[in-house]
């Protein structure tokens, strides 16, 4: 079941620059990975390097919902990380979206997932994210997805694959690097992540933003219990 209509002009995949905030997000992630990783069973850094690619992640962190919830608590318990995320929303993403909606008169509300989802994909693993579109998980046509890597694609060699339009089937990898952000219409556009065959851990941040009149913040897919909290930014 799907709510609303796709936002016009926002379905295309594109990149925006986030170099101003990506270092802070990487540092924040490394900080709580170092503190909470061994305590909560996510994994640990080996040696003195705090490069996220060097975090030795446990297999279960990629597929376990309980670990995803524990990670979310780590994110919520990290004010510096959240401050960088807020900067990203306020200074980069929402102004970018507002610019794409220049035909719209008056203020536009952006319903931003808060906190974002931070994902760890362990290296040398057969685990993958199967092909899906997010409408299956209660997302609406009036929201768009943002995906940004916090680790180097040149090391991890794994990334998100998407199709260029719903049902088109022309899947291609997002070969982007820390500081770049991919935007796509994940509610309708199918996507997946292949296994990470390298020894390096892949870390990425993703979130969705509901756009103005195209998004209904009160809508719930019948039967679905988990919904991401949102922060509203009006521009
Ligand atoms: Fe998805």
Spans where pLDDT lies below 50 across 5 or more residues: 8-15
Bound molecules: fe (ii) ion
What structural class is derived from the secondary structure elements? alpha+beta
Strand percent estimate? 15-25%
Q: Could you tell me how far the N terminus lies from the C terminus, measured between alpha carbons in angstroms?
A: 30 Å
**What spatial form do the alpha-carbon principal axes imply?**
globular
Largest sheet: 7 strands, antiparallel
Count of distinct strands: 13
CATH architecture heading of the domain at 14-23 and 82-234? Sandwich
Amount of helix: 25-40%
Average the pLDDT over all residues and give the rounded result. 89
List SSEs in N-to-C order. Answer: EHEEHHEEEEHEEEEEE
Indicate the CATH topology of the domain at 14-23 and 82-234: Jelly Rolls
According to CATH, the homologous superfamily of the domain at 14-23 and 82-234 is: q2cbj1_9rhob like domain
Which CATH top level class of the domain at 14-23 and 82-234 fits? Mainly Beta
Number of H- or I-type helical stretches: 4
What's the alpha carbon Rg, rounded to whole Å? 17 Å
Protein name: StrG protein
Could you characterize what this model shows?
This protein is α+β, with helices and mostly antiparallel strands and 235 residues long. It has a domain at 14-23 and 82-234: q2cbj1_9rhob like domain (Jelly Rolls), CATH 2.60.120.620. Helix content is 26%, strand content 25%. The protein contains 4 helices and 13 strands. The protein has helices at residues 19-40, 65-76, 79-100, 153-156, and strands at residues 14-17, 43-45, 55-57, 109-113, 117-121, 129-132, 143-149, 161-162, 172-173, 180-184, 191-193, 202-211, 230-234. The strands form 3 sheets. Strands 1, 4, 5, 7, 10, 12 and 13 form a 7-stranded antiparallel sheet that branches. A 4-stranded antiparallel sheet has the order 6-11-8-9, with no helix packed on it. Helix 1 (19-40) crosses helix 2 (65-76). The protein is globular, with a radius of gyration of 17 Å. Bound molecules: fe (ii) ion.
């Amino acid at each position: 079941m799907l709510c609303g209509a796709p936002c016009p002009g926002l379905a295309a995949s594109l990149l925006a620059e986030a170099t101003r905030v990506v270092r802070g997000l990487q540092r924040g992630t490394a900080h709580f990975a170092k503190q909470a990783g061994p305590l909560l069973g996510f994994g640990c850094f080996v040696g003195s390097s705090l490069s996220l690619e060097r975090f030795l992640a446990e297999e279960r962190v990629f597929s376990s919902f309980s670990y995803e919830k524990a990670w979310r608590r780590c994110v919520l318990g990290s004010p510096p990380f959240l401050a960088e995320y807020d900067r990203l929303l306020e200074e980069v993403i929402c102004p970018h979206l507002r610019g794409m909606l220049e035909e719209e008169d008056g203020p536009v509300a952006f319903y931003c997932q808060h906190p974002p989802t931070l994902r760890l994909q362990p290296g040398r693993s057969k685990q993958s994210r199967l092909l899906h579109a997010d409408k299956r998980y209660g997302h609406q046509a009036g929201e768009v997805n943002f995906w940004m890597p916090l680790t180097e694609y040149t090391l991890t060699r794994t990334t998100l694959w998407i199709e260029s339009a719903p049902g088109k089937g022309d899947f291609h990898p997002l070969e982007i690097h820390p500081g770049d952000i991919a935007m796509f219409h994940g509610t309708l556009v199918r996507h997946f992540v292949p296994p990470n065959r390298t020894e390096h851990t892949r870390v990425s941040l993703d979130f969705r933003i509901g756009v103005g009149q195209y998004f209904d913040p009160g809508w719930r897919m019948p039967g679905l219990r988990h919904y991401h909290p949102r922060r509203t930014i009006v521009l």
